[in-house]
Every structure is written in structure tokens, then in C-alpha cells.
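Field notebook, page 295. I keep forgetting to write these up properly, so this time I am using the form the group agreed on. The chain and the ligand, L-homoserine, are recorded exactly as supplied. Prediction of the bound pose follows.
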Amino acid sequence: MVRVTVPATSANMGSGYDSIGIALELYNVIDLAENDHIDISDKNGQYVPQDESNLIYQCAKRVYDECGKPLSGLTIVEDCAIPQTRGLGSSSACTVAGIMGANMLLGEPLDRNAVIDLAATIEGHPDNSTPAILGGFCVALLENGHVHHVRVPVHGAIDFVVFIPDFQLSTEKARALPKTIDHHDAVYNLARAALLAGSLTTGKLENLDAATGDCLHQPYRFGLIENGEDIVREAKKLGALGAFISGAGPSIVAIVYKGDRDYITRAQELCEKLYPHWKAVQLRCDEVGATVKRL
Ligand code: HSE
């Protein structure tokens, strides 16, 4: 039996559409063992697909197939804290768990870069799968099956508050974006994405509001997220350094000063008073990434 622990991720961070993501301290913990049949269960009694359609199983099987090893079945026990379809990388976490679990069961034939490439190829979002594996703040792009990536240290003065609604938004629906963009809009985002990476690293935190600005995806997605734009505005009014849609949404992430210990209380009061379908949770940046161990 092996246990894989994978963090949640918040992709895009406003300006870094499909290219920037950060790992957060909220985890899916998945146990896997070889078996002669498929036996999939959830520790918390949540519904999970119990046959070959299970994403963790499919990703594990893909590793066995790529390594030319037969697989007759797996025992998979899921303990998932990352909420599904909320823009917090739950499917990336399951993809990474399947790949890293199978890789460990096979004696680690894939090195770390091969795991990163396979996860992004299967999942399609290197901005989620790469920080899920490496932890921290990552810039990543997938080209011809290979992920070019860099993990950049995040300045120690910041924390994250995540506003999570009680409704879901499918990534597929949220990716119905314009097919072409204006040259001006491309420049708007690329300048901000570059500024974001530099500012998070150096601690030039006064840049973060401008650096998380975006005109490529958020303006189109806010219409799909009831109160999403209000939460971004209110999160900033409460003192956030920047706020944006997490991944494809619907969750919203606020970057806050670590020293602002009351921010989470103000955010929770905001939700209770004005946005009862939302809750606020404080999360640190995960610096470790996915881990796997034999039990
Ligand atoms: N970058 C992707 C998107 C992340 O915004 O659609 C999906 O989790």
C-alpha cells in the first residue's frame, strides 16, 4: 500500500491564464495498492466512481500501460478535502495521485520531470498539475508533451484567503471564452503576469493588485459566478493585496498580509452578513508539493 498526499492549487492568479499556479495547504490523501480487481472507496462516505471511470484509477492505469506492466486491479481509498468543481485543482490532485501512486507501486520508473509531463498531458492544465507536484508558486507551459516550468519562492509575508461558494462551475463551461483576443489585451495580461512572478518573489507587494489584473478570462467568467465580482471587490476593500478567480472558478482567492491576522474574521463576517452561499477559509502556500510513501 502507498499513500499519496496532494495539495490543492489555484491556477491563473488573475493575469497568468493557463500558465501560473500556486499550491495551497488543503489536501487529498489517496491510498493505493495492487489488487486482482478494482475496489474503490471514500473514507468520508462521499460519492466516488467505483469502476474504470475513476480518474485516479485511469491515471494509475496509464502509468502501468506506459511502463508495459499489466494491471488487473487496484484498491483505492480516497480521503479528499479539496472540494470538487470549485476551481481548486481537485481533478489535478486526483491525476497526480494516480500517477505518483502507480509510479511508487512500480518502483519509481518515472523521474520527477516525467511525472510532471504526464500529469499535464493527461490533465491539460500545467498551471494546476505542476504546482500540485512541486508545491509553491509555479510558472508552467506544456509544449509537445513536455512541461517547461519554474518554481519560484513566494515572499514570506503573504497568506491566502479562499472564498468558496456552495455551488459548482464546470471547467468546460468556464472555458467557453473568445477564440481571438485583441493585441492590446494580450499585452495587458503578459505585462501583469511577468510583474506578478517578480513581485511575489521579491516581496514588492504593492504591485499585486495591478499584477493580478486580467482581461483574458475573468470578465467572461464573472457572469457565471453569482456574486463573484462583488467578492473580489469586497475582499480588496477588506484589505487584500489582490483578489482573483481561482482557476476556472467559482472560488475567489484573496492575497493578504500574513500579519493581518483579523482578515479571516472580517472575511467570514462578510460572508455571513452579505453572501451566505460563500465561506472564507485561510490557507497558506504549500511549499512541499505532492508526497508519496509506502505504508
Ligand atoms: N487555467 C485553467 C483555466 C485552469 O483557467 O481554465 C483550470 O483549472
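OBSERVATIONS:
- The mean pLDDT is 97.
- The pocket of L-homoserine is lined by residues 11-12, 17-18, 125, 127-128, 171, 175, 217, 247-248 (CB under 6 Å).
FOLLOW-UP: compare against the apo run.
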